[in-house]
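seq:
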Amino acid sequence: MEAYTRLLRIIHEVNGIVSGYKSEKYLSDVDSLLSVAPSDDVGDDNLELLEDDEEDTFQPHKGNVIFACALDGWGFGISDFAEIYASKLGASAATLERALWGPRYYNPKTKMVVGKKAISNTAKARPMFVQFILEPLWQVYQSSLETDGDRGLIEKVIKNFNLSIPSRELQHKDPKAVLQAVMSRWLPLADTILSMVVKCMPDPATAQSFRISRLLPKRDSSDNRDCSDLLSEAELVRKSVEICDSSPTAPCVVFVSKMFAMPMKMLPRGEILNNPADSGDSGECFLAFARIFSGVLCAGQRIFVLSALYDPLKMESKQKHVQEAELQALYLMAGQGLKPVMSAKAGNIVAIRGLGQHILKSATLSSTLNCWPFSSMVFQVAPTLKVAIEPSDPADMGALMKGLRLLNRADPFVEVTISTRGEHVLAAAGEVHLERCVKDLKERFAKVNLEVSPPLVSYMETIEGDMTNPLENLKFLSGSSDYVEKTTPNGRCVVRVQVMKLPSPLTKLLDESSELLGDIIGGKSKQALKSLETLRGSIVEDENPIEALKTRMMDAIESDLSSANAEMDKDRVEKYRVLWKNFLKRIWALGPRQVGPNILVTPSRGKSMEGSVLMQGFPYVSNRLGLHNDGESKDVSTESSSVTDEMLLREVESLESSVLSGFQLATSAGPLCEEPLWGLAFVVEAFISPIECQSAEDTSSQQPEPYGVFTGQVMTTVKEACKAAVLERKPRLVEALYFCELNTPTEHLGSMYAVLARRRAKVIKEEMQEGSPLFTVHAYVPVAESFGFADELRRWTAGASSALLVFSHWEMLPEDPFFVPKTEEEIEEFGDGASVLQNTARKLIDAVRRRKGLPVEEKVVQHATKQRTLARKV
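struct:
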């Protein structure tokens, strides 16, 4: 009964998790239906969606749950035992499938299946799953493993089920080996899993009909009427994929999802590698893991390799994103073995040899050039755990770089980059994934000893904002004269910078929409944007992504303004709403990397400095988003044009790129520890004055600038002014947080909370699960404190607690890294002078600066002793 209760709880917990995901998807689907379709035009298909079945997803009587023991190699479904007992109990197998799970009991007197209420002695009653399934399994285990076990039961099982077991296995001295031999043949695990897959999963022909919209979305062909033949052939290819056409005349379309490394000795005997690029000196052969969607794939066939950027309508795309390759061999994968085949039809999954030098991670294979590439694979999470790797012996650097290239090809989820400091950074999905990657590097790919750094955690930098009244930041930026002023070394450019903190909803939106913003700023067409965003799932079909982004930006502003409605009158809120709309019309650039959560705003008109020209800039991002009309183009100050000549105006326009570059540099490396800035808006006013001594043009043209190129001076000055402005406005550190869900028995709650306290976790919810002794606790855990969290939790709770970590959001640390006690209360609480301990923010900043080689304020002498002068007496 204890095992049965445990199995019930596991299935209940899994169904609870799935039901949470289903409810989120259900609500989003309902919202999309109600927003797109009128209320009177909801079709039958939509009604089926709205009336979604509420019963549990996983139920053993449905056939989608199997009970298995991987250690002993056996597994079964409810249907297996239903067929066994159907003839003995005189009932149909379908009826027994429903009765063998749940509170169903068998009455031997009436030979009826009854519920719990019809049982007279409930204390001794056992559910049918326990009586007819678990107890026979327990008896087999006892008769095999116990010294005084009934060996006749084993022989009875072998006889009743006609099991073919060699006598040498039954006479083995180890009882565990005898048990595995009997159970693996009575209830084979492989057959059970395969039958469940066949029963529950759709076949390729059925599945591709409803997956085609994601695999090969329809392209708009209204603008390309000259390529009608090409488009008709591409549509024919799409139809072949949709119906899973396996005829030899159908176009062959294959998708390679990943490349995987196979040791040379694991290849079938007699295989000769003709292409050294597949093997190299590492002893590894790279095979392509591929699914055939249409046609027939043959060994020795020549086929086109299409990258994700391939466009059959563009001639230059055929030169850049297409390669032609010959398939050297095809294999069917059976566990760790490979079976060579000469051809494979649509619907099969095969391994292909001969594509090692043509594919890095994924690609589309096609027998025709008139085929659109498949959509790129979308992963649910990103590799967040980063470490720096270097060889123990510097002479092995070449082997390490080669090993990293091989690992990058063999693992589709790993990322290998080189940092600005020249370190080789390896990014993995988690601690177990990282451990496996390092092991493969040491033993398979690089074959050298490695030094692995502690995990590299990313941070952000921002400024302290008035969270109680978010409109004060905007008021400061709109009419304040408080700014930071810097001048270039040659004195020709004066830079004034103001900074404010953006509302949190707007910052989060800019960060989440970075890919879409990159496509918009890059100048992609509306149709391309629509197809990309539909694939990403951020918009519904038939919705303009630019308009959707504009609406979401205005909604973010409205949500921030609504938080101030309770304290401010409606007139002030409306005034600042208009002010915000004007600010959104002045977005010059985003940063860092042109798409970050920081904004560069063009300076307001009307400001001037005697004898200088103000660089007006142009709201390029606002213009691309449709927030700014082209009629409102920039207007260089007409007042200054009468004083300065046309050469100075042209020079001002040419220096705009320097201001943008300075802004990008400042936002990519903040003043605290050179981490990217987060959620800030900058106004940069650059006043350019003419060159002095205009009459000596000939002599000045021959003399080089003593302080370097003027564009570089402007860039550096803008960067330093932005950093100084951030330091003036109380800088703060922003750290990433995981959402953590923990399930813990009541007796281990104290140990679990102790572990959370040591990790600086913030508990947000705790509740007890109904019908079980488990507590569910929700908390936010900093990413910097998450390494080794699961191991420590299991160690302190004796393995009774489990944790699920998912990246949640970025959050500002409220602590001032430059805090110094000044008042009597602060001195009494924190101490004075050298006795003041560093707060958490300062510790994190110093750790990052120390890792990057930046100067850190710390004591040189850590363990001082009293100095003694020893006189040397002769």
